[in-house]
Amino acid sequence: VQLQASGGGLVQSGGSLRLSCTASGTDFSTIAPDWYRQVPGKQREWLATVTTGGIAFVADSVKPRFQVSRNNAASTTYLQMNNLQSEDTAIYYCTNLGHWGPGTLVTVSS
User: Are the beta carbons of 48 and 58 closer than 8 angstroms?
Assistant: First the structure.
């Protein structure tokens, strides 16, 4: 399975971004990719996932600002991030069963 996160960029504090994670090489409907983020020098932080049955789980640390969803037809899971703050600046990754895609950088300016 290959995973590709996209949608990062520079946003002002209080703004929003929607990240996408598209999978290939597998039947997306049978997997539940996780979203993580990492600030250089710090541990990766788990953020969210949506089960194959469509149940969403979001880390308390970013709830309710972040929401997660999936579109099986597009083989994509989305991370909607609202009211972004400077502490959300990080590289965001999606992963499944040990497969990590290249991350996408989110930079929040104050």
Answer: yes
User: Looking at residue 40, what is its pLDDT?
Assistant: 87
Number of Cβ atoms within 10 Å of the Cβ of 86: 10
Side-chain half-sphere CA neighbours of 30 within 13 A = 6
Tokens matching residue 7: 């949608």
Alpha carbon 66 to its chain's center: 9
Output phi, psi for 99, to 5 deg. -90, 120
DSSP states of 8-60: -EEEETT--EEEEEEEESS-GGG--PEEEEE-TTS--EEEEEE-TTS-EEE-T
What single-letter amino acid sits at 107? T
At 11-38, the pLDDT tens digits run 999 999 999 999 999 999 999 999 999 9
